[in-house]
Task: structure prediction
Amino acid sequence: MGDQVITVLVVDGHQTFAELLGVALRGQPDLRYVGHARNGEQAIRLAAELKPDVILLDPELPDADGIAIAELLRHRQPETRVVILTASSEATLVGRATAAGAAGFLSKNGALGDVLNAVHTAYGGGMTVSTDILARLLRSTTPVVGPRAGGLTAREHEVLELMGSGLDPRAIARRLGISVHTCRGYVKAVLAKLDAHSQLEAVAVATRRGLIRPDRHYGR
Result:
């Protein structure tokens, strides 16, 4: 990343938590805290004005569904990466977040270092999921009975391996030297063959079937 400074916007209805997070971000030489939105309306406005590289977002906002806000931002500002920070233990929230294009899903009870690592990973095109959240997802995912290869082509399995490394379609496309459109086609095929509704769910299913071993980006 060199001398690149990553700009970060915090979206959270809890003032004290947001302030503490802002202090921590200001203490990092390669991160720049650009502001705090207390609700969905402010989040949309500040994201458009400030165009942050990464947004740390609580899905439970006082005036809106934070996951819906994340999906809206993905369409309006595709270069801005959203990392979900939540106090919820609801496993289905993870699937919704990844389907909305979130680049991370972490517990608010986790270590500050995990949040800072997630910001860097998101900026680099990867995805981070807390170890406890990933474990809950693995437990809640029904094993799929079928051939070990899962009916995947060699290229689809290659894409799945990179998904397991925490990369999103844009980063996978760059790694494989293909277009993002083509890569999204492979991702869609992988999800269909694994009967998954999101990239993270596909990784969970593939892990339980022994198709892949997710790397450290999943489960810091």
Summary: The chain has a mean pLDDT of 85. The longest helix spans residues 180-193. DSSP finds ten helices and six strands in the chain. The beta strands are 6-11, 31-37, 54-57, 81-86, 104-107, 128-129.
